[in-house]
Amino acid sequence: MDVVSDSICRIQLALAVKALLNLAVIGLNWQYMHKSFMGYFCISLSFLDLIHTVNFSIIYWLTNFAILGFHITVYHIYLLLQISTLTYSILHWPVFIIAGLDYYWTFPFSKPLSPTRKAVYAASLALVWISAVMYVFFFSDYDSEDSFSPMEHQSFLLIKSQCASLSLVVLAVITCVVIYCRSGLLSLFKSFRGEPYTEGSTCVFFYKLDLDEGYKKPTLTYIAVCFIGTWFPFVYLQLIIMVFRIEVVPFLELNVPWLCFLNSFLIGAVYWHLNQDVAVLKHSEIPDGFCNWTFAPSPDCIKKALPDTTSVTVALIITP
Questions:
Q1: Direct distance between the N- and C-terminal alpha carbons of the chain, in angstroms, rounded to an integer
Q2: For residue 123, with 0-12 CB atoms within 10 Å meaning exposed, 13-18 middle and 19 or more buried, which class applies?
Q3: Which residues of 75-112 are buried (b: 16+ CB within 10 A; e: fewer)?
Q4: DSSP class of residue 212?
Q5: pLDDT-based confidence at 185, cuts 50/70/90?
């Protein structure tokens, strides 16, 4: 039982750290969390992780007890962990797709949430969780038998998750964007080596964009700089996990920081795809507390104002 106790202690510690991290991120970005489906899902995930941590702790510290005629033992920790692991492992792509559709339909995020939209988010959230749990019970490898050894229970921690495939797709898209926007990114990199204009805590870097390359490419360069500049450590971490094939248990892979990363990615992708609908997107209207999505007027507006101009010097404003 020493091996079992050590294993449970490690699981409890991992769950507690994850729950605290989720709560910290949500607390710091609360004003953005209740403005989108992704924010609603992050709140629900944080709540469920906290409930899991409390339940596992109660079962472990009380050891053997009965409630409503059911005899609860430490093996039920692994049983609950099976359910949560299998459920979390199949939610990455559904949440990613639903959040993407939400941003596509509600772009440019200028309207406050109406009661109807809040009800739709709540109903969608319930549908996602219920569907995932039903899939686990009726179509997955879930087994409710509690006569297995702890090692057999722990084998469920190594099941395949959707996180790896989704991370691979996101990294591939980022790589393609960097290659496509290499000229603008290189120009920006060179501007960093010069002397920026500094006023207080704000730095302004000036660099040239070629308008003959098209109107969407400069905007995509802006988006790439904003996203990669904010999430570069996380992108680097995902790259290390993919290259060295580091195994992360599924119940830890689905966390609020990861969902916030996907949230910024989706906002950038939707804005670039639909940027012709608006000229300027204000930071306060975007449900993202990480990336400062503030853009200058689009190259299309500049081209109309200066029809004979083939290139323009633009400014990238960086504030803490």
A1: 51
A2: exposed
A3: bbbbbebbbbbbbbbbbbeebbebbbebbeebbbbeee
A4: G
A5: confident
Query: Are 230 and 290 spatial neighbours (Cβ–Cβ below 8 Å)?
Result: yes
How many angstroms separate the Cα of 130 from the Cα of each of 62, 254, 315?
29, 17, 48
Are 256 and 39 in contact, with CB atoms under 8 Å apart?
no
Residue 112 gets which letter from DSSP?
P
The DSSP symbol for 194 reads: S
* Residue 47, Cβ density class (10 Å: 0-12 exposed, 13-18 middle, ≥19 buried): middle
Nearest to 211 by CA among 184, 191, 171: 184
Residue with tokens 């010097």: 313
How far is residue 197's CA from residue 315's CA, in Å, rounded to a whole number? 10
Residue whose entry in the numeric block shows the structure tokens 């033992």: 73
> What is the rounded distance in angstroms from the CA atom of residue 141 to the CA atom of residue 221?
45
Calculate ∠ Cα 37-134-40, nearest 5°.
15
What is the overall mean pLDDT for the chain?
78
Portion of the chain with pLDDT greater than 70, in percent: 67
Query: Three-state SS string across 257-303, please?
Result: HHHHHHHHHHHHHHHHHCHHHCCCCCHHHCCCCCCCCCCCCCHHHHH
CB contact set of 187 (below 8 Å; sequence gap of 6+): 207, 208, 209
Q: At 5, list the tokens.
A: 């106790």
What mean pLDDT do residues 1-30 have? 84
Q: What share of the chain is helix, strand, coil (3-state, %, to 5)?
A: 70, 10, 25
Phi/psi for 204 (5° steps) reads -120, 120
Least-confidence region, from 11-15, 117-121, 173-177, 255-259:
11-15
Contact between residue 138 and residue 302 where contact means Cβ atoms under 8 Å apart? no
pLDDT computed for residue 147 by the predictor = 42
The residues with which 144 forms a beta bridge, in sequence order, are none
CA 203 – CA 315 distance, rounded (Å): 10
